[in-house]
Amino acid sequence: MPSPIRRAIVRPPGATFAEGLTTVDLGAPDLARALEQHAAYCEALERCGLALTRLPADSRHPDSTFVEDTAILTEHRAILTRPGAPSREGEVAAIEGSLSSFFRECRAIKAPGTLDGGDVCEADGHFLIGISRRTNEEGARQLAAFLAEEGFTSSFIDIRGLEGILHLKSGIAYPGEGRIVAIEALVTHPALRPFVVLRVDAPETYAANCVRINERLLIAAGHPRFEAALRELGYDTLALEMSEFQKMDGGLSCLSLRF
After folding, report:
1. What are the catalytic residues?
2. pTM higher than 0.85 for the full model?
3. What Cα–Cα distance (Å) separates residue 27 from each residue in 70, 133, 179?
């Protein structure tokens, strides 16, 4: 059984949030509503038993609320990423000090490697690493080598040919119990064969980005078929409004670093 998650690092969206990167055309995010949704998200993490480190908003980096992209965390080490979008590079330096308060060892992805945390899905000690528009093969190889030093295994999933998802975790999630949530385009991928795959139907694709926090499963609100399927399997779901973050290619996992 995996160790319980006890802490999370979060950062609210800043005044420049609407200037961030996005590949979807869902309209500009409403900052006030985004702040409300972020506050509800933080409250949900606390209800799941997590102690939060709340970083101040960083308007210098419009995408900085998506803190998950800046690091991969294991029990003993923080691995700093090297974001694939140049405008996001400063986010890593801005969070390194907070991570050093909790992790004695920090490693870092180096050029020419690029890596976004949203491309990394851990499943009980095995890491699924996406090769995407933000994470290249070299970044994935460096991460796999760091993980292997701690005894973890990994496999790669190339999503560059898939439309509609920016990061791997836009299309998969690990809810525990040997299951993988996956969008239709990934359900037959060879890297997912060791798992029982829970298919997310096309109309509810956004719901694939869900997060297991101890005994609860956080899901995006507005996806009743997927939520009902999870509840039938015994998951204790907690639905949260994510509309403003969806407009900026963000999901539930993106908004925190959990450890």
Report:
1. 167, 254
2. yes
3. 26, 22, 34
